[in-house]
Design brief:
It contains no helices and 6 strands. By secondary structure, the protein is mainly β.
């Protein structure tokens, strides 16, 4: 994943990045997948994100960073 400043479009390193993967389950508790975030060495503003989507379906990858900024991705996992 890449993070850039909106003012000048330059890459920016972030201090706090949190991520989680959630799959809503109709009528039950959601399923959670493991997510790891790694800063890429010597590359400003780039992060490696790995997620464990343990079953087929629509997952939501939620990423929080900075001071309350958030982004959410919908990912369809197929066999």
């Amino acid at each position: 994943m890449e993070f850039r400043k909106s003012a000048d479009n330059q890459p920016v390193n972030l201090q706090h990045i949190q991520a989680n993967a959630v799959m809503p389950m109709g009528g039950g508790s959601p399923m959670f997948g493991g997510v790891s975030v790694e800063t890429l060495k010597n590359v400003v503003g780039y992060y490696k994100i790995e997620a464990d989507f343990s079953m087929q379906g629509t997952w939501y990858l939620n990423i929080a960073f900075g001071e309350g900024e958030k982004v959410k991705f919908s990912i369809d996992v197929l066999n």
